[in-house]
Specification:
By secondary structure, the chain is of the alpha/beta class.
């Protein structure tokens, strides 16, 4: 019996690994290791996967003891920013000559996830680095990261399947959906200046209101980021309307969707929606893999017809995890 150990902390990596588990139950015995106060554990509860969970602390000896008890055949982990506990799992894999797989999420800071530019950062590299889509694969290989492989993104496949079900039940309205992001807060933490990128979410919203006629929508609906507050937008527009629906329901109802560079823009694009990444500055670039025609720094001379839409289903990226394990560990 193959024993497959998973570790994640941040939500992005956790979503990818937990959906891989759900799609691969016949591959072997799974065990999910995470801190109890982590975004990963929140997702474990949401997905009702507590049966597979093993609580750990941040202590290296505790992690080693839990892994020794489980006796894994292979170790999979997410790459995040909030901590680097995955290094303890990598150390265990190297000590016991086990294959290790680091799963990338999003499209940024790929080398930094392994400690670059610190001295000897290459020691943090696993047996395999797993990309989550073609853009991810191309970026990882362009950086010269070794042993980059393509495994099916079960999280994306699950999300798109659920989304298609929602879209089939909800009629599109003449609504512009604004996906807010607390840009000022993030810039303040990063640069000590809310305008470190040359703009904040206020300017983005003001520009949307100023050019509302260009989007050919009757109403504007704001979907707040969990760290954002309605007062930011009510100060600009006292009549501002906010969503209380799910993300997929909001996407289904919207005719046009505007954000800065949230991953939700990519989801909407894959579902065939008219999507705009709006960043009114040269100090920041869009990190979501949208067509250049959909990445705007100004609404001057903008025409709705210039946007590119995805009408076909995304390419079937990557191989089945079951097939990969069979090749690595045998039947």
């Amino acid at each position: 019996m193959k024993r497959i150990a998973l570790f994640a902390h941040d939500a992005g990596g956790a979503e990818i690994l937990l959906e891989l588990l759900k799609a691969s139950l016949n591959v072997g015995e799974f065990r999910i290791f995470s801190l109890v106060d982590s975004p990963c554990y929140h997702l474990i509860k949401t997905k009702k996967l507590e049966h597979f969970w093993s609580e750990i602390t941040s202590d290296a000896q505790d992690i080693e003891a839990k892994l020794t008890q489980f006796q894994p055949s292979i170790i999979l982990y997410g790459t995040g920013w909030q901590n680097h506990l995955e290094y303890h799992f990598l150390d265990y894999a190297k000590t016991h000559n086990l294959p290790s797989m680091a799963f990338l999420d999003h499209w940024t800071n790929y080398r930094e996830r392994f400690g670059y530019p610190e001295k000897n950062w290459e020691n943090n590299l696993p047996s395999f680095i797993v990309a989550h889509d073609q853009t991810s694969y191309d970026k990882a290989t362009a950086f010269g990261l070794p042993n980059v492989i393509a495994i099916k993104n079960y999280a994306l496949l699950s999300q798109l399947k659920e989304a298609q079900n929602v879209l089939s039940k909800i009629q599109e309205n003449n609504t512009l959906l604004f996906l807010s992001e607390p840009t000022a807060k993030v810039a303040t933490r990063a640069f000590g200046d809310a305008y470190g990128w040359g703009f904040t979410e206020k300017e983005v919203f003001e520009d949307i209101l100023k050019h509302k006629a260009l989007f050919e929508c009757d109403t504007i609906l704001i979907r707040l980021h969990p760290s954002d507050t309605p007062e930011t937008y009510q100060t600009i527009d006292p009549s501002a309307t906010f969503s209380h629906a799910t993300l997929l329901e909001d996407i289904a109802e919207a005719k046009v969707i505007i954000g800065i560079d949230t991953v939700a823009l990519y989801t909407a694009y894959l579902l065939g929606k008219k999507v705009i990444s709006y960043i009114p500055s040269t100090k920041r670039e869009c990190l979501v893999p949208l067509p250049k025609a959909n990445q705007l720094t100004s609404f001057e001379h903008f025409k709705l017809s210039s946007l590119q839409q995805m009408y076909d289903k995304p390419d079937n990226f990557g191989i089945d995890f079951a097939l990969f394990v069979e090749k690595q560990l045998g039947t």
